[in-house]
Amino acid sequence: MLWAIWKNRNSLLYAETQESIAVLMRRALEEASLWYEVNKGASGEKQTALHMGVPQSWTPPAQGMVKCNFHVNWRSDRYHVGGAWITRNYNGEVGMHARDALTPKSDKLSADMYCLLWVLKSLRDLRIEEVHIGTDSQELYDAIQKPYRWPRYRGLLQQITTICSEFVGIEFEVESVQSNKVAREISRSVLRDGRFQSYLALGLKVLW
Protein backbone atom coordinates (compact mmCIF):
# COMPACT_ATOMS: atom_id res chain seq x y z
CA MET A 1 0.00 0.00 0.00
CA LEU A 2 2.90 2.36 0.78
CA TRP A 3 4.24 1.73 -2.72
CA ALA A 4 0.93 2.78 -4.28
CA ILE A 5 0.80 5.95 -2.15
CA TRP A 6 4.40 6.84 -3.02
CA LYS A 7 3.78 6.35 -6.73
CA ASN A 8 0.65 8.49 -6.58
CA ARG A 9 2.67 11.22 -4.84
CA ASN A 10 5.27 11.15 -7.62
CA SER A 11 2.55 11.37 -10.25
CA LEU A 12 1.26 14.51 -8.58
CA LEU A 13 4.71 16.10 -8.28
CA TYR A 14 6.14 15.28 -11.69
CA ALA A 15 3.21 14.70 -14.02
CA GLU A 16 0.70 17.03 -12.38
CA THR A 17 -1.82 14.20 -12.27
CA GLN A 18 -3.37 12.38 -9.35
CA GLU A 19 -5.57 9.31 -9.30
CA SER A 20 -8.72 9.23 -7.24
CA ILE A 21 -8.54 7.85 -3.72
CA ALA A 22 -10.92 5.05 -4.73
CA VAL A 23 -8.62 3.87 -7.53
CA LEU A 24 -5.57 4.15 -5.29
CA MET A 25 -7.19 2.11 -2.54
CA ARG A 26 -8.47 -0.54 -4.95
CA ARG A 27 -4.98 -1.10 -6.33
CA ALA A 28 -3.40 -1.14 -2.90
CA LEU A 29 -5.96 -3.68 -1.66
CA GLU A 30 -5.33 -5.91 -4.68
CA GLU A 31 -1.60 -5.90 -3.94
CA ALA A 32 -2.26 -6.65 -0.27
CA SER A 33 -4.57 -9.53 -1.23
CA LEU A 34 -1.91 -11.00 -3.50
CA TRP A 35 0.71 -10.69 -0.75
CA TYR A 36 -1.62 -12.50 1.66
CA GLU A 37 -2.36 -15.36 -0.74
CA VAL A 38 1.32 -15.88 -1.61
CA ASN A 39 2.46 -15.90 2.01
CA LYS A 40 -0.47 -18.03 3.18
CA GLY A 41 0.45 -20.60 0.55
CA ALA A 42 4.12 -20.53 1.48
CA SER A 43 3.39 -21.16 5.17
CA GLY A 44 1.61 -24.43 4.37
CA GLU A 45 4.09 -25.93 1.96
CA LYS A 46 5.54 -28.34 4.51
CA GLN A 47 2.15 -29.99 4.97
CA THR A 48 1.40 -30.67 1.33
CA ALA A 49 -1.46 -33.14 0.93
CA LEU A 50 -1.98 -35.28 -2.14
CA HIS A 51 -5.22 -36.06 -3.92
CA MET A 52 -5.07 -38.30 -6.98
CA GLY A 53 -1.35 -37.50 -7.29
CA VAL A 54 -1.90 -33.73 -7.58
CA PRO A 55 -0.41 -31.54 -4.81
CA GLN A 56 -3.00 -29.55 -2.88
CA SER A 57 -0.59 -26.75 -1.96
CA TRP A 58 2.14 -25.01 -3.91
CA THR A 59 5.35 -27.01 -4.30
CA PRO A 60 8.73 -25.43 -5.13
CA PRO A 61 10.73 -26.13 -8.29
CA ALA A 62 14.11 -27.82 -8.31
CA GLN A 63 16.89 -25.60 -7.04
CA GLY A 64 18.14 -23.30 -9.79
CA MET A 65 14.83 -23.35 -11.67
CA VAL A 66 11.94 -20.90 -11.69
CA LYS A 67 8.37 -22.09 -11.28
CA CYS A 68 5.66 -20.29 -13.22
CA ASN A 69 2.02 -20.92 -12.34
CA PHE A 70 -0.58 -19.66 -14.78
CA HIS A 71 -4.35 -19.77 -15.14
CA VAL A 72 -6.91 -18.96 -17.82
CA ASN A 73 -10.38 -17.70 -16.96
CA TRP A 74 -12.65 -18.57 -19.91
CA ARG A 75 -16.44 -18.17 -19.81
CA SER A 76 -17.61 -18.40 -23.42
CA ASP A 77 -16.61 -17.41 -26.95
CA ARG A 78 -18.41 -14.08 -26.44
CA TYR A 79 -16.16 -12.79 -23.65
CA HIS A 80 -12.55 -11.80 -23.32
CA VAL A 81 -10.25 -14.31 -21.64
CA GLY A 82 -8.51 -13.48 -18.39
CA GLY A 83 -4.93 -14.72 -18.21
CA ALA A 84 -2.34 -14.46 -15.43
CA TRP A 85 1.00 -15.93 -14.44
CA ILE A 86 3.31 -15.68 -11.44
CA THR A 87 6.88 -16.90 -10.95
CA ARG A 88 8.51 -18.05 -7.74
CA ASN A 89 11.90 -19.50 -6.92
CA TYR A 90 12.98 -22.50 -4.86
CA ASN A 91 12.35 -20.57 -1.64
CA GLY A 92 8.85 -19.50 -2.69
CA GLU A 93 9.87 -15.88 -3.25
CA VAL A 94 7.83 -14.08 -5.92
CA GLY A 95 9.77 -12.98 -8.99
CA MET A 96 7.36 -11.55 -11.57
CA HIS A 97 3.62 -11.70 -12.12
CA ALA A 98 1.42 -10.46 -14.95
CA ARG A 99 -2.17 -10.21 -16.10
CA ASP A 100 -3.76 -9.63 -19.49
CA ALA A 101 -7.14 -9.71 -21.20
CA LEU A 102 -6.94 -11.91 -24.29
CA THR A 103 -9.36 -11.75 -27.20
CA PRO A 104 -12.33 -14.19 -27.11
CA LYS A 105 -11.55 -17.83 -27.96
CA SER A 106 -13.87 -20.52 -29.26
CA ASP A 107 -13.31 -22.97 -26.40
CA LYS A 108 -11.46 -23.43 -23.12
CA LEU A 109 -8.59 -25.48 -24.53
CA SER A 110 -7.88 -22.91 -27.25
CA ALA A 111 -7.82 -20.23 -24.56
CA ASP A 112 -5.42 -22.33 -22.48
CA MET A 113 -3.05 -22.72 -25.43
CA TYR A 114 -3.10 -19.06 -26.43
CA CYS A 115 -2.47 -18.07 -22.83
CA LEU A 116 0.40 -20.55 -22.55
CA LEU A 117 1.98 -19.03 -25.66
CA TRP A 118 1.71 -15.60 -24.05
CA VAL A 119 3.30 -16.96 -20.86
CA LEU A 120 6.16 -18.66 -22.69
CA LYS A 121 6.92 -15.61 -24.82
CA SER A 122 6.92 -13.42 -21.73
CA LEU A 123 9.32 -15.72 -19.88
CA ARG A 124 11.58 -15.94 -22.92
CA ASP A 125 11.68 -12.16 -23.29
CA LEU A 126 12.55 -11.89 -19.58
CA ARG A 127 15.52 -14.20 -20.31
CA ILE A 128 14.36 -17.00 -18.04
CA GLU A 129 16.12 -20.11 -19.34
CA GLU A 130 14.97 -22.90 -17.03
CA VAL A 131 11.36 -23.00 -15.95
CA HIS A 132 8.79 -25.31 -14.41
CA ILE A 133 5.28 -24.55 -15.71
CA GLY A 134 2.30 -25.27 -13.46
CA THR A 135 -1.26 -25.40 -14.85
CA ASP A 136 -4.55 -26.62 -13.40
CA SER A 137 -5.76 -27.65 -16.87
CA GLN A 138 -5.36 -31.42 -17.15
CA GLU A 139 -6.57 -31.25 -20.75
CA LEU A 140 -3.84 -28.78 -21.70
CA TYR A 141 -1.20 -30.92 -20.02
CA ASP A 142 -2.40 -34.02 -21.89
CA ALA A 143 -2.37 -32.15 -25.21
CA ILE A 144 1.22 -31.00 -24.66
CA GLN A 145 2.38 -34.49 -23.71
CA LYS A 146 0.58 -36.28 -26.58
CA PRO A 147 -0.14 -33.69 -29.30
CA TYR A 148 -0.98 -36.34 -31.91
CA ARG A 149 -4.23 -37.00 -30.04
CA TRP A 150 -5.34 -33.40 -30.58
CA PRO A 151 -5.20 -32.85 -34.37
CA ARG A 152 -7.66 -29.96 -34.18
CA TYR A 153 -5.06 -27.93 -32.28
CA ARG A 154 -2.05 -28.99 -34.34
CA GLY A 155 -1.06 -25.43 -35.29
CA LEU A 156 -1.15 -24.11 -31.73
CA LEU A 157 0.67 -27.15 -30.36
CA GLN A 158 3.41 -26.75 -32.96
CA GLN A 159 3.87 -23.14 -31.87
CA ILE A 160 4.11 -24.26 -28.24
CA THR A 161 6.67 -26.94 -29.13
CA THR A 162 8.76 -24.44 -31.09
CA ILE A 163 8.94 -21.87 -28.31
CA CYS A 164 9.59 -24.56 -25.69
CA SER A 165 12.72 -25.53 -27.65
CA GLU A 166 14.12 -22.05 -26.99
CA PHE A 167 14.47 -22.78 -23.27
CA VAL A 168 17.47 -24.56 -21.78
CA GLY A 169 15.12 -26.59 -19.61
CA ILE A 170 11.33 -26.69 -19.32
CA GLU A 171 8.93 -28.98 -17.46
CA PHE A 172 5.15 -29.08 -17.09
CA GLU A 173 3.11 -30.06 -14.06
CA VAL A 174 -0.61 -30.37 -13.31
CA GLU A 175 -1.68 -28.26 -10.35
CA SER A 176 -4.78 -28.49 -8.19
CA VAL A 177 -7.18 -25.57 -7.91
CA GLN A 178 -5.80 -24.94 -4.43
CA SER A 179 -2.10 -24.98 -5.37
CA ASN A 180 -2.77 -22.68 -8.33
CA LYS A 181 -5.02 -20.27 -6.42
CA VAL A 182 -2.83 -17.15 -6.72
CA ALA A 183 -2.72 -17.25 -10.53
CA ARG A 184 -6.43 -18.14 -10.59
CA GLU A 185 -7.36 -15.16 -8.46
CA ILE A 186 -5.41 -12.70 -10.60
CA SER A 187 -6.83 -14.05 -13.87
CA ARG A 188 -10.42 -14.02 -12.57
CA SER A 189 -10.17 -10.31 -11.78
CA VAL A 190 -10.25 -9.50 -15.52
CA LEU A 191 -13.89 -10.49 -16.02
CA ARG A 192 -15.05 -10.30 -12.43
CA ASP A 193 -13.80 -6.76 -11.79
CA GLY A 194 -13.46 -5.46 -15.35
CA ARG A 195 -9.68 -5.11 -15.13
CA PHE A 196 -8.80 -5.26 -18.81
CA GLN A 197 -5.59 -3.25 -18.49
CA SER A 198 -2.55 -5.52 -18.65
CA TYR A 199 0.30 -5.23 -16.19
CA LEU A 200 3.71 -6.73 -15.44
CA ALA A 201 5.03 -6.52 -11.90
CA LEU A 202 8.24 -7.30 -10.06
CA GLY A 203 7.72 -8.94 -6.70
CA LEU A 204 4.52 -7.68 -5.14
CA LYS A 205 4.70 -4.15 -6.55
CA VAL A 206 2.19 -3.79 -9.37
CA LEU A 207 3.30 -1.68 -12.34
CA TRP A 208 -0.08 -0.19 -13.32
Automatic annotation (TrEMBL):
It comes from the Eukaryota. InterPro entries: RNase_H-like_EbsB-rel, RNaseH_domain, RNaseH_sf. GO terms for molecular function: nucleic acid binding; RNA-DNA hybrid ribonuclease activity. The gene is LOC130507779. Signal peptide: none annotated. Pfam families: RVT_3. This is Uncharacterized protein LOC130507779. Residues 69-188 form the RNase H type-1 domain.
